[in-house]
C-alpha cells in the first residue's frame, strides 16, 4: 500500500503560517504523489478557520 507523508502549509490573513503534516495512505498501487497531495489538501481544507488558505502542499513517499 503506497504511503506518503504530506506537509500542508496554511497561511492566514495576517500572513502567519502553520504547517499540518501527517501520513496519507491509499489502497491503490497506482496512487501517486499528485493524488496524495490533493487528498492531503482536501483533508486540511475541511479544518480551515475563516481567513485561512492553503499555500503549499508537499507529499513524500514513505518506504514502509
Description:
This protein has 64 residues and is α+β, with helices and mostly antiparallel strands. It is built from 1 helix and 3 strands. It has a 3-stranded antiparallel beta sheet, covered by helices on one side. Strand 1 and strand 2 form a beta hairpin. It is elongated, with a radius of gyration of 12 Å. 14% of the residues are buried.
Total helical elements? 1
Low confidence ranges? none
Spatially, the strands of the biggest sheet line up as 2-1-3
Number of strands: 3
Class by SSE composition: alpha+beta
Distance between the termini: 9 Å
Can you summarize the main beta sheet?
3 strands, antiparallel
Which geometry do the CA atoms define? elongated
Compute the average pLDDT: 93
Strand content: 35-45%
Order of helices and strands: EEHE
Work out the helicity level. Answer: 10-25%
- What Rg is obtained from the alpha carbons, in whole angstroms? 12 Å
Provide a short characterization of the protein structure.
The protein has one helix and three strands; from the N terminus they run ββαβ. The chain has one helix spanning 33-45; strands spanning 3-11, 17-25, 53-61. Strands 2-1-3 form a three-stranded antiparallel beta sheet, with helices on one face.
